[in-house]
Amino acid sequence: MIDKFVASVVDALHGIEDGSTILLGGFGAVGQATHLIEGLIETGAKDLTVVANNAGYGRVGLARLLEAGRVRKLICSFPRIAGSTIFESLYRAGRLELELVPQGTLAERMRAAGAGVPAFFTPTGVGTRLAEGKETREVGGRIHVLEYALPGDVALVEAWQADRWGNLRYRAAGRNFNPVVAMAGRLTIVQTQHVAKLGELDPETVVTPGIFVDRVVHLPHGDPVL
Amino acid sequence: MIDKFVASVVDALHGIEDGSTILLGGFGAVGQATHLIEGLIETGAKDLTVVANNAGYGRVGLARLLEAGRVRKLICSFPRIAGSTIFESLYRAGRLELELVPQGTLAERMRAAGAGVPAFFTPTGVGTRLAEGKETREVGGRIHVLEYALPGDVALVEAWQADRWGNLRYRAAGRNFNPVVAMAGRLTIVQTQHVAKLGELDPETVVTPGIFVDRVVHLPHGDPVL
Amino acid sequence: MSRPTASWTPLSRTEMAARIARDIPEGWYVNLGIGVPTLVADHVPIEREVIFHAENGILGIGPAPDAAHVDPWLINAGKQYVTLRAGGSYIHHADSFGVIRGAHLDLCVLGAYEVAETGDIANWATSEHDTAPAVGGAMDLAVGARRLWVAMEHTTKEGRPRLVRACSYPLTAIGAVARVYTNLAVLDVTPGGFRVLDMVPGLTLDDLQELTEATLSPAS
Amino acid sequence: MSRPTASWTPLSRTEMAARIARDIPEGWYVNLGIGVPTLVADHVPIEREVIFHAENGILGIGPAPDAAHVDPWLINAGKQYVTLRAGGSYIHHADSFGVIRGAHLDLCVLGAYEVAETGDIANWATSEHDTAPAVGGAMDLAVGARRLWVAMEHTTKEGRPRLVRACSYPLTAIGAVARVYTNLAVLDVTPGGFRVLDMVPGLTLDDLQELTEATLSPAS
Prior knowledge:
Chain A has a single domain (about 5-120, about 150-220), classed as Glutaconate Coenzyme A-transferase (3-Layer(aba) Sandwich), CATH 3.40.1080.10. Helices cover about 20% and strands about 30% of the residues of chain A. Chain A has helices at about 10, 35-45, 60-65, 85-90, 105-115, 180-185; strands at about 5, 20-25, 50, 70-75, 95-100, 120, 135-140, 140-150, 150-160, 170, 185-195, 215-220. Chain A is globular, with a radius of gyration of 17 Å. Chain A is α/β, with parallel strands linked by helices. Chain C is an alpha/beta fold. Chain C has one domain: 3-Layer(aba) Sandwich (Glutaconate Coenzyme A-transferase), CATH 3.40.1080.10. In chain C, about 15% of the residues lie in helices and about 25% in strands. Chain C has a ten-stranded mixed β-sheet with strand order 4-3-2-1-5-8-10-11-12-13, with helices on both faces. In chain C, helix 3 packs across helix 4. The longest helix of chain C is centred in the N-terminal third of the chain and has 10 residues, at about 15-20. Chain C is globular and about 50 Å long. Chains in contact: A-B, A-C, A-D, B-C, B-D. Chains A and C meet through helix 4, helix 5 and helix 6 of A and helix 3 and helix 4 of C.
């Protein structure tokens, strides 16, 4: 019997190595696998590259991980949000490398990784600082930038419902990057609010099929707090 | 009030021009917008390029359109199926141009068109006849082929349910290429088995949001016949 | 703004939003940036069906909820609580930017620091050495939407023009802007530069030109 | 096949399928091609959870339905009626080939005309001038799945070897095959060519070599 559920955050995060690239679902506070992100601290893994839309806020989740000094590099579209003080002070102090990526390019690079597409052209960023030094090409009369797939060693996902095959559904705007990072992670780890029995999720409504999921931990942790 | 429903197949297909590229959803007989495809004959549009996984069978749908001599070129992954006699005789007679594309490349080229990605690299087809003459490049230690987006002037979609904003759900394996061609068509036309009231479709379960859909016609035409 | 002694009054942020809302017809799919653009939705009557999109995968955003009806799982790209109207739906981030990049939005309205007469827009970074840069979806939206409108004050607080010959701030996109709504005027970006469609009552083209670096032309 | 007078019996198609099924562990995600590969599913007991994928967007295919329980909306990539087991789900075609190309499948089993000792596979066209070529998902599956196994007769009906030094038919993919299951043997493709893992009872390596163009090596 396939059962991707594990008993604890520690089991869920087992084996993550120093230097790993970690992809995070979530947009702002919604749909972030906060317990898994904070759990990374206990694993001791360091020198991490973290890919996330935002750089965390306050002292929770990614901000806590940053504060613990475990992150070498952040690949991010919008690090500076209300309360992102830990990120800002580390960045100003030169203790954190930042690769700034347009949000759609960030999503598409991870989707490409998940879909076996190693590189693609996009019109986004042409003629801007974020395309400096990148290969460009005219296709269909318009200039485009070549962007590369962004795979993760690990993806951390927050789901609303999961079954033992790892099929996932999300809640409202909690979907966001989660299905994308789930595809792009070589090891995809999920924290879910609710457990569904196998067959309980309508097959027409599964958003992330279990093929993209390796481990699931049940954490009924409640609503996101902005 | 937005209402994408039109009264008839004729209204749904209004304005399609000679020389158009038409993308078809469907895989085998399942999920094919047969009434819209046959309706193309009455529009008089000719010199069409049709993009479809299969080349039709018997004397229905795409096979009828081919027989009527309206198709100049077929872009297809698996034209030769049981009953594809009309395609085979036209092709042998040199009366139909064929661009054979691996199925995943076909899907990805249309998805790219819908997502504003003009070209991408893929490992599929490298070293084969289907990559002859195409640009290749090593990315990540592996050779890839450059493939281009495949947009349609028109996409013909079959849905199970649609509402007046054009939100769609499909039925089982009837999903297949339909959400992909819906994204890639500049004019996306849907035949739906069922009409849903606005708000009746659970927002978590819409597969094709109405933003990809221009016109919908209600045709409760029953089950596909293999 | 160093206002000349004049008989005209600049639009408030709310009035700017209302002015933009007037020009959005039923049936358009629209993404609204942070700031004045977000206010535009409040001025589109609910019965005029305009479908608002947010980068974080929402189509069909409705009016903001009152405090008693907040759904903590439903925020927009500006991280504000929103509602979903009947007919709305959720998509994931790659699909959401497929919607953007693939030219499925009829309109995007963004704020900006500067717009050039060529349609270049600068709206994401104020200097080459920002303390912590953040770009979000601005570059994708600017190149992807079928029309890009900008909503901004006509000049900076110090009176420096924002409608310029060439942007001095880091670019968001090249040649992307179709129209600019300021607190003083509405201007189309044309191959011949900015063309004034509309001004606040009492303002003359000469007054406006004085507050603008780029050369303005009147609507023909 | 020109069979030497010998005490061995080639496997039937069903036996080949059963042999392959033995090697598929629980938990694998597997795509099965047309022909003998499709039969493999029948030999994986339902309690050993193997999740079968079809190119047309199905994950979790169950046993074939009897005539009374056919769902006309549920076919596999070979256009045969199938069922969906609890835990199954549907995805669209671009996502389905994302699953394939993105190396999410543990295994794909395909039929073939020829496999070369380098792992090249030819399985989609029998000549350079086919009356009407068709490739389907073969090229995507061959390059995309983590492991590609081939199921085929060891020789053509005319006795011509199918395990060759270099394919004579048009290629499907280069260096893609990991293992070949024939009606006579199981062979791994290694950097040193075909290595025989298993043969039907009574068959010797010399017998097998006689029916094979490529040079065989024994399992060490």
